[in-house]
Amino acid sequence: AKVAGVKKIVVVSPPCKDGTISPERLVACKESYVDEIYKIGGVHAIAALTFGTETIPKVDKIVGPGNIFVTLAKREAFGYVGIDILAGPSEVLIITDDTANYAYVASDLLSQAEHAPGVSILVTCSEELANKVINETSSQLSKLPRGNLIKESLDKFGVIIITRDLDEAIDISNTLAPEHLQVVVKNEEEVLPKIKHAGAIFTGSFTPVAVGDYVAGPSHVLPTGGTARFFSGLSVNDFLKRTSVITYSEDVLRSAAKDIITIAEAEGLEAHAQSVRIRVDK
């Protein structure tokens, strides 16, 4: 937002039990040049930003993900303010062949499920790798502090799809348009040009989604639930607007007048046509 030239940035964040905001969030706000921070969250925070209160200013645009209630509140607010996207549960789809490290793949599926709920999908052309991932997932799961929540998430939203080949895996990925897409195959350069829809693409064995979560650079506010087919992740472009400046000379208007009048009359908008005639019929 600052790079785009936004002059004032306001952050709303629910406070901790002791009424403070965590120091990690405060540091993040400082590093992002945030101007004001308000200790409020949830639906009422969206309402306050949308319409303004005695203490919280009305804003022009609200961005950032939240729970289902925040998402629905943003939907209701749209039109009164601008929004970015309606983000749903986080998701990952991993495309692999038989060269992938099954332990790494298992850890990536688990890390997404840790959102509870989180959607974890493995699409592979290797049945052998799929079986190894299943066994490894169970092994790693037993060592995680949020294991019960992760297991519940995997039971509801976890799936492994075995395909005939990588092209079929790519077709499935493009149909689902995942928020996070990991491509862990022998020849990534052959797969990437065929990817049409994904919020963010992570390539190679040493690029887990966690690097995008925290330090890689691109925004981690990404389209979910298949909306990557028509939305992109939050970026500088979301804080820029476009406008047009049109100037016609008398000669240019005369040359276009007939077409303008014809179209206006076809729409039954006689005053539109007359606004051109009055300038050229003299």
TrEMBL record:
Q: For this entry, list what GO says about its biological process.
A: L-histidine biosynthetic process
Its required cofactor(s), as named, are: Zn(2+)
**InterPro entries, A to Z:** Ald_DH/histidinol_DH (IPR016161), Histidinol_DH_CS (IPR001692), Hstdl_DH (IPR012131)
NCBIfam families from the xrefs? hisD (TIGR00069)
Q: Name one GO cellular component term.
A: cytosol
Instruction: Give GO terms: molecular function aspect only.
Output: histidinol dehydrogenase activity; metal ion binding; NAD binding
Protein's recorded name? Histidinol dehydrogenase
* Keyword annotations of the record: Metal-binding, Oxidoreductase, Zinc
